[in-house]
Sequence to fold (81 residues):
Amino acid sequence: MNEYQDEYIGKNIEIKKAGNKEIIGLKGKIVDETMHTFKVKVDKKTKTILKKNNTFMINNNEIEGNKIIKRPEDRIKIKGR
Fold:
């Protein structure tokens, strides 16, 4: 399984590149995932982060958000990218 097929809920995330400069460097734990977003627990708050046009570090793998815009259950079925 490659990093684009992985289950992300429960994993640590850091935003590396983003259209919104205020979220670059944000770190937290993924608590939920939808087709277009991650819900990330940062301190005691939960933030909703768009996947589109953002790049993430998830467990030491750089993930391009545009490549994972799918429902999680469909993304896991993807054959190698």
About this structure: The longest helix spans residues 72-75. Residues 37 and 47 are 10 Å apart (CA to CA). The radius of gyration is 12 Å. The chain has a mean pLDDT of 90.
